């Protein structure tokens, strides 16, 4: 008998809170890290149709930098990994869009993304801009276990590459990353599903970015974790598949110069102080098998 429903709940909370800060083994020190946000870097971003601003979710410095970039770019629309499409649609309809309603916006988003209050600077910077959501809701996430990512994504699954199995070597590499990202606590049998879930999230985020671009033109800014912003996979790979003519810019945000994956540019901030992200797995006594 599988214990996955309980495990899934633990994974959801851990991933949203701080598990995006993978174990050190998943990172590499970088020689191409830029330590300052320069005018030249902003100018490079401004030339793109879609700008992906990566982050470690619980690093407040990363969100302050995102807010500065948004203020400088004045994008046509903003896509949030942290908002469901349904919540974002309410924001676009005029719900909670007054500056004095920032706290109410944050409270509403916390229901699906615990700790969303750390995004306050970004919320303020995007005030009045069209908002789109790229989050896979808990309900849809649960359906992945039963129906698969193609069914959950919908009729465009083939176009977005979700019906194509990954090459064997890439599948193995991604499963290893998922195991490291979840503190070596996942049962081996669940690793393929976690890779599928990541691919689904990339596709949902890419679809939201395309929807925003089609409605408003560029530049569209995407607020997301580094794993979804990296150029070799993540949302950029999906965007290049679906809309090869789009000009993309992917910013990675490292902690102490350490980050995984290629980006157009990388900024570095000090690592955030955080509790051990693996504690939730140890507390649940998750066993592999």
Give a description of the structure.
Helix content is 47%, strand content 12%. The N terminus is likely disordered. The strands form 2 sheets. The protein has a 7-stranded parallel sheet, sandwiched between helices. A two-stranded antiparallel sheet has the order 1-8. The chain contains 13 helices and 9 strands. The chain has one domain: Rossmann fold, CATH 3.40.50. With 289 residues, it is of the alpha/beta class. Helix 9 crosses helix 10 and helix 10 crosses helix 12. The N and C termini lie close together (12 Å).
Brief sketch in words of this structure:
With 289 residues, the chain is α/β, with parallel strands linked by helices. It has 13 helices and 9 strands.
Helix segment count? 13
Q: In the CATH scheme, what's the topology name? A: Rossmann fold
Beta-strand share of residues: 5-15%
**How many DSSP E strands?**
9
Are there runs of 5+ residues with pLDDT below 50, and where? 1-26
Overall spatial form: globular
Provide mean pLDDT, rounded. Answer: 85
The CATH architecture designation is 3-Layer(aba) Sandwich
Q: Report the C-alpha radius of gyration, rounded.
A: 18 Å
Strand order of the largest sheet: 2-9-7-3-6-4-5
Compute the number of structural domains: 1
Topology, please?
Blueprint: H1 4-19, E1 28-29, E2 33-34, H2 39-46, E3 50-53, H3 60-73, E4 77-80, H4 85-92, H5 102-110, H6 120-125, E5 131-133, H7 138-147, H8 149-153, H9 168-181, H10 191-216, E6 220-223, H11 226-229, H12 234-242, E7 248-255, E8 258-259, E9 265-269, H13 279-284
Parallel strand pairs: 2-9, 3-6, 3-7, 4-5, 4-6, 7-9
Antiparallel strand pairs: 1-8
Helix pairs in contact: 9-10, 10-12
